[in-house]
Amino acid sequence: MAAKPHAHSSLPLPSLLLLLLLNLTPPSHQQQNQKISTVDLHALISIKNSLTDVPFRGATAFFSTWDSAAPDPCSTFSGVTCTAGRVTTLTLGTGLSDSPGLAGSLPPSLADLTELTQLILFPGIVTGPIPFQLGRLANLRVISLTNNRLTGPIPQTLSLLSNLHTLDLSYNRLTGSIPQGLTRLPALKVLILASNSISGELPHDVSSQLLHLDLKRNKLTGPLPPSLPTTLRYLSFSENEMSGPIGSLFDSLTDLVHLDLGMNRLSGPLPQTLFRTTLQSLLLQRNNLSGWVPPVGSQPPSYGEGSIVDLSHNSITGELSPILAGVESLFLNNNRLIGKVPREYVKSLYMGTTRTLYLQHNYISGFPVEPGSTLPDTVSLCLSYNCMVPPVGMEACPASAGTELSRPASQCSVFTYG
User: Are residues 268 and 317 in the same domain?
Assistant: First the structure.
């Protein structure tokens, strides 16, 4: 009786050798150098298929390096940074001055880059909505999709990104309201939604960590929020349709450097607490604010180079206080100011500290000037249409000031203020 063969002898010898060779032979050159996960690579190819370079003579084509057959996309794909084979930073577009940017739309496959911490889209003409699937990218710290043509609402799912530090969706065509949870994100420091068509009222709850909040040029309505984080340094709600008083909202914002509430429908008295040392930009123009500029207190503000205060086109009354002397660009035109200009302003003009002083269209009755003295060439002073004739050589006014040098005497004799 023949001996029973061993189990492994049922495989022909050549097959056994093939198995051994497969186990011992090192992987091909391409396999060794494939340093990106398959999921991330597929996502990048999908992104490339959804976006395209805008043709422009001489411009650098962003996607020219995105070759799916490349052995190491992490080091050869423009705008891609990886850690341990996973994409962590994605910058779409060159950002160069000669580049018109990208066109197309943002694909949902962006959400497959699950280790992504930064998503940046340079200015271009990308259209369509912001994918709601971005809310799945729990590691995202920066989203910047500025200066494109994105439409639709801000996805509510972005409120799930608890690690988000910076969100910049400015200069697009976004609509709808600001998602309630967005301003409550615990790590959010910078929120920029300027120049869209966002409507509705501001959320009442705003993150206690915010440093920079920019919502200008939208269609926001309703009152200012009841409170804001004391950490704010930059705040702009300008060019909206917000109404109501300013009140004491900014009393506790002692770190605020830039405040812009211009071109709204705000009313009520001008809060005297806004005139303090930290604010270097105070923009309240074209509202319905009343009251007066406060006198100099025990600690007068010290305005530095580049400082600007614009209170023009309101209903501010009373004599001009010296508190704003030293502001580099000061706009007080189109109000109801009376009396003589304090000498502190004249001194600041002659020293060149104040470079722009617009006082036109008020009821000012005097401007003390030394005979024969001339202002520096760098200074712009406008005093037209007041209850005085501007001194010779001091009629440098914008075209909007009109051609009349002074008010009719009848307006000055009957003018009163409350």
Answer: no
3-state secondary structure of 323: helix
How far out from the chain centre does Cα 125 lie? 19
The order of strands in the sheet holding 336-340 is: 317-319, 336-340, 363-366
- Tell the burial category of 370 from Cβ atoms under 10 Å away from its Cβ (0-12, 13-18, 19+): exposed
**Same structural domain for residues 72 and 184?**
no
271 and 167 in a common domain: yes
pLDDT in tens, 19-63: 333 343 333 333 334 489 999 999 999 999 999 999 877 667 899
Which residues make beta-bridge pairs with 143? 119, 167
Mapped onto helix, strand or coil, the DSSP state of residue 162 is coil
pTM (whole model) above 0.85: yes
Residues of the domain holding 104: 36-126
Q: Does the CA dihedral 147-150-151-153 come out positive or negative?
A: negative
Domain at 121, CATH number: 3.80.10.10
- 361 within some domain: yes
Dihedral over alpha carbons 266, 268, 273, 275 (to 10 degrees): 70
Together in a domain, 107 and 218 = no
From first CA to last CA, the distance across the chain in angstroms is: 126
Q: What are phi and psi of 27, to 5 degrees?
A: -65, 160
What's the pLDDT tens digit per position in 160-180? 999 999 999 999 999 999 998
- Looking at the structure, tell me whether residues 321 and 344 fall in a common domain: yes
Residue 146's nearest CA partner among 90, 101, 183, 213 is 101
Contact 174, 151 (CB under 8 A): yes
d(CA 70, CA 77) in angstroms, rounded, equals 9
Mind listing the pLDDT tens digit for each residue in 330-340?
999 999 999 99
pLDDT at 396: 76
Answer yes or no: do 375 and 307 share one domain: yes
Q: Is 11 inside any structural domain?
A: no
DSSP annotation of 22 = H
Q: Which residues of 162-201 form beta strands (DSSP E)?
A: 166-168, 173-175, 190-192, 199-200
Q: H helices within 26-108, ranges in order?
A: 29-33, 38-50, 73-76
Calculate the CA 147 to chain-centre distance. 11
